[in-house]
Amino acid sequence: MSNVIKNPRNGCALHGALQTVQEINGAVPVVHSNAGCGVVNYLANQRFSGGASSYSGFSIPGTAAQERHVIFGGASRLREQIKNTIKVQKGDLYVILNSCESAMVGDDVDAMTREIVEQGEPVVDTLVAGFNGGPHYGYEQVLGDIFKSIYEVKKSGLKRESNLVNIFGIVPQKDPYWQGNLNELQRILTGLGIKSNVFFGTEGGVADFVNAKNASASIVFSQWGELPAKILKEKFDIPVIYRSSLPIGTDKVQDLAEAINKVISLDESLVKDFLEKEEHTEKSLFLRVRDEIFELGLSKNAVIIGDEEQVIRLGGFLKDRLGVVISSVVLIDSLKKDEAHETNNEEELRTISENIYKGIDQKEIDEIVSSSNAEVIFGSSLEKRIAEKLNLPLVEISYPIADKLILNKADAGVNGAISLLENYITVVKQYDERKKELASSILKEVKGGESWRELSQKKSFLRQSNLITELPTREYISAQR
Amino acid sequence: MAGKIGKHIAIYGKGGIGKSTTTSNISAALAEAGYRVIQIGCDPKSDSTNTLRGNNYLPTVLDSLREGNKIHLDDISVKGFGGVLCIESGGPVPGVGCAGRGINAAVNLLQELNLFEEFKPDYVLYDVLGDVVCGGFAVPIRDGITDRAYVVSSSDFMALYAANNLFKAINKYAPTGGAKLGGVIANSMKPGYHREIVDDFVAKTGTSIAGYVNRSLDVQQSELYGKTVIEAKPNSAQADIYRNLAKYIAENEDLVVPNPLGSAELRDWARSWGDRIYDIENGVVNGVAEAI
């Protein structure tokens, strides 16, 4: 019997593939679906994270298939749409995205793509349908499909670059801090003497995809990103470096440098100088808030709700650097039943928390939060209600984040460590401030002349202010007598 | 609901088993008896009503839908033998699109066009591709469009297998207002054990025989002339077989929800018949007669 899933936070595979292609500079997505698939994704992501890319929402070229395209097949409609798109939208690469209905009907999308490629246009396609999985799966599959065919339509010589790496595993828009994190990662790799293909956002683009075959290694920073790296290994023998998460803090950057050094030899003195400089920056800024770290009591009990990569990255940092006790974690990756990946991070997850849950049902997540002894929640805007109900501070780290604009802010790397600290302290300060306001509003109720019993009750309220969710009124207090 | 006007009957059966021939002859026999009849071919091959309309051209419902123009009943229907209104749902070219959705869209369109209110039929026969490969092909027995289905089957295992699959579909949809089974039309019957096999199958599945139709040269000849047996050879014994079948179907109100056999059960049942046929063909004597 199927169960109700409350507030599922993941979209479908088409959405994952679409938001991946949207963030590739120079790539034009063409969605072969009924009207609405692309717009739904746009409405969700525009509302929740970092705005919209150039081809998104109502500007996405699409076939807007109708019933007759289902009955008689929509391939010729797709052909027409690709041709029209090429006429009006200049792109370095056109990526055809499939949908549930076209997959069910069995439209020969491949044949349409081949036909246009034969006319000399740079077109690739993916056959992944919405129902094949979640957005993480869509990200991985569309990258896999692009790498399978891009070198047929974008021909160039093979020239291995000894200090070039490919970056995989960060799902655009699914990680609210994806853009900032990619930029921060590129900054760090540059500091270590390494050039990088980041593929997405302000520093990425179609050229990165063309250039990916020349890299000396692919670094996969989460369980999502194994497929494109594997394809590049099979095609061009590019070694793969698996990491369970993005680095956060200088110590984790050093770990990354050591892992890279096993595959690509790094300039030791350059690395040493860079790490020292980073450590200096990090330490200096941390020192500035040493008093707050203790005064605000940042080493709280916490629950983390996020993708596996976020949980490992942020959980490790909070635990090791700020003494946070992670009582439970909830992994919200859109995993299929019994889905297995090359890398298994269970052991590392267990070092972060004893209680590891997987799932996206908000009802279950709320129960997990309620039954933990958490004093702070690291999660998404969907945890706002339970945070308010339990009167706990909420640090928003995972998708969806509704009430903040995040354009180029990182929560990974060295700058990410600082901004996470800023974020955490800000939330706790605001929370403490709210508590103080609550206390003073109760004190204002004291008019003089109250009995000892009345005053004692107010004091008791103040002591328990953690449990007060609404301001007590005078009537309420007098009713307590 | 449009289904309330006239009796709506779906006729299923494995491809090539003689559904269209049987359905057309039933339509012709009913028309001959003075009833107003519509026959709707629900098969992408769109050749259900050929023998009723002398192989004349008839645009299919979906052909008209593809053009995207406003569709009138006159564009997609033609009167054939005895005034039978012939309609073909049609479908995409083989290997493209979704024929199941096509059937669905065609049936919906016919209802939108008020076909039944306009024509006021006594009987509507749906001749449906019988393998029920997806939900689309189950449309005529779902949603109260028809309230009874018949299945055409020979004694061949694959034809009975397809019939058993249809029984599964009826079994699924009947509790929620879908059609029930009127019976099995045993087609291509030849002398020997053929009737016995079909009889045994209906007994096993809790269904009944609507009629036996013998294999006959008359059917083949009439088809080659582009006519039904009722039209081409009205005085033949075969024509009477179809008339009796039509009468049975017109009057039968004994509808059942069949008990389809499970995969293993069906296989074992088929194997037991395989052994019996081998014995019959090779003159092996079993049972009491063995002692003689």
From TrEMBL, chain A:
GO molecular function, one term: oxidoreductase activity
Residue span(s) of domain Nitrogenase/oxidoreductase component: 12-427
Species whose genome carries this gene: Pseudobutyrivibrio ruminis DSM 9787
Family matches, as Pfam families: Oxidored_nitro (PF00148)
UniProt-recorded name of the protein: Nitrogenase molybdenum-iron protein beta chain
From TrEMBL, chain B:
Reactions that this protein is recorded to catalyse: N2 + 8 reduced [2Fe-2S]-[ferredoxin] + 16 ATP + 16 H2O = H2 + 8 oxidized [2Fe-2S]-[ferredoxin] + 2 NH4(+) + 16 ADP + 16 phosphate + 6 H(+)
Entry's EC annotation: 1.18.6.1
Domain of life where this protein originates: Bacteria
Metal-binding is among the record's keywords: yes
UniProt entry tagged with the keyword Nucleotide-binding: yes
Keyword tags: 4Fe-4S, ATP-binding, Iron, Iron-sulfur, Metal-binding, Nucleotide-binding, Oxidoreductase
InterPro entries from the UniProt entry: NifH/chlL_CS, NifH/frxC, P-loop_NTPase
Cofactor: [4Fe-4S] cluster
GO molecular function, one term: nitrogenase activity
Free-text function comment from the UniProt entry: The key enzymatic reactions in nitrogen fixation are catalyzed by the nitrogenase complex, which has 2 components: the iron protein and the molybdenum-iron protein.
Binding partners and assembly: Homodimer.
Family: Belongs to the NifH/BchL/ChlL family.
Name of the featured protein: nitrogenase
Organism: Pseudobutyrivibrio ruminis
Taxonomic path: Bacteria, Bacillati, Bacillota, Clostridia, Lachnospirales
